[in-house]
């Protein structure tokens, strides 16, 4: 099967590997869609802290179940599914508390172990969620949106509160949409005017601020009668922006770091204590976050597909990635589509046609 491997920072190669088979308790997923995530971009750039090379990227995955192993219901064959890419141990303190998203022995498909930038992937059945209603594009975006759902749930955001999202990438856009579903007043902050316009025009995020053009803290004081934000979410992946975010949080507010960077983050301790600020990290997502995203997608309340601005086929991805990572590329969310006719021609003559 075809496989895209990140050999080292800045270098992707397409190679042939032996197709996997199902073990007991596993299903074989024919990959149909792969969302390109900030994690993939950071890994390609050498800036992902949990990454080792070489690695097959890809954890925003959707496809069709084409085979199952022992102890798996054969009726699942032929159904579309998305992948929950977080493999947890079930035994550590975090898992015992139900916080499997930050398992001490966490293994993320596409980060700690090889991922789904390939034609097929064997996945433990408990990591697959089938859907008879959502199209493949949306299924591939569930994981990205679940990150935002988890961050909002961590913040305990309440109706009527002022939520500030810094970083108008796909994760930040997800946070903003999920915060709005909680009834919060949402403000998006980014230095890219095109992304801010996209948030206003396509996602109906009416309040946007550009720190290049205006003083964000001053604007937030105007919006909040001088109180600043109840909750600030950083989704920039930029250490300087992450540090500046402390200044946007009001008294008794919360600061949620969704970004992960290879850096130390500092803050002014007297101001931090004066506000009695709560500082939270938000890692990955739990099953209930995935379920919330699916519920909102099925209800038509989460227009995640609008974020897809660029597409390519798997074989062309190594050539596309450098251009997509370049400043000014205009990429919001890139999607890899797998042409099943490639697989059909390589299979036996009686192979089914899975094209849509």
TrEMBL record:
Keyword entries, A-Z: Metal-binding, Oxidoreductase, Zinc
InterPro entries, alphabetized: ADH-like_C, ADH-like_N, ADH_Zn_CS, GroES-like_sf, NAD(P)-bd_dom_sf, Zn_alcohol_dh
Domain Alcohol dehydrogenase-like C-terminal residue range list: 170-298
Domain of life: Bacteria
Name the record gives this protein: Zinc-binding alcohol dehydrogenase family protein
Coiled coil: none
PANTHER family in the record: L-GALACTONATE-5-DEHYDROGENASE (PTHR43401:SF3), L-THREONINE 3-DEHYDROGENASE (PTHR43401)
């Amino acid at each position: 099967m075809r496989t895209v491997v990140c050999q080292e920072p800045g270098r992707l190669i397409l190679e042939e590997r032996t197709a996997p088979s199902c073990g007991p308790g596993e299903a074989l997923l024919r990959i149909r869609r792969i969302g390109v995530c900030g994690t993939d971009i950071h890994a390609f750039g050498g800036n992902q802290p949990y990454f080792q090379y070489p690695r097959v990227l890809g954890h925003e995955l959707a496809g069709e179940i084409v085979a199952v192993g022992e102890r798996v219901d054969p009726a699942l064959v032929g159904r579309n599914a998305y992948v929950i890419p977080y493999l947890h141990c079930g035994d550590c303190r975090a898992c015992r508390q139900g916080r499997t998203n930050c398992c001490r022995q966490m293994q993320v498909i596409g980060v700690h172990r090889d991922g789904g930038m390939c034609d097929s992937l064997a996945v433990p059945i408990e990591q697959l969620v089938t859907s008879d209603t959502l199209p493949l594009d949306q299924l591939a975006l569930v994981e990205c949106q679940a990150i935002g759902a988890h961050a909002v749930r961590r913040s305990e955001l309440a109706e009527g509160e002022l939520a500030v999202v810094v970083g108008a990438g796909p994760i930040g856009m997800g946070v903003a949409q999920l915060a709005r579903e909680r009834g919060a007043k949402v403000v998006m902050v980014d230095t890219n005017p095109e992304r801010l316009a996209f948030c206003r025009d396509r996602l109906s995020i009416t309040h946007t601020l550009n720190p290049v053009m205006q003083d964000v803290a001053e604007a937030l004081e105007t919006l909040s009668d001088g109180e600043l934000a109840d909750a600030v979410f950083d989704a920039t992946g930029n250490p300087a922006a992450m540090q500046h975010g402390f200044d946007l949080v009001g008294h008794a507010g919360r600061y949620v770091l969704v970004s992960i960077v290879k850096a130390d983050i500092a803050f002014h301790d007297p101001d931090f204590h004066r506000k009695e600020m709560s500082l939270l990290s938000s890692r990955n997502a739990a099953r209930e976050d995935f379920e919330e995203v699916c519920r909102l997608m099925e209800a038509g309340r989460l227009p995640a597909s609008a974020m897809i601005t660029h597409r390519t086929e798997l074989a062309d991805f190594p050539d596309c990635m450098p251009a997509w990572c370049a400043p000014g590329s205009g990429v919001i969310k890139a999607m890899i589509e797998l042409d099943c006719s490639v697989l059909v021609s390589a299979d036996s003559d009686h192979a089914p046609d899975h094209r849509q």
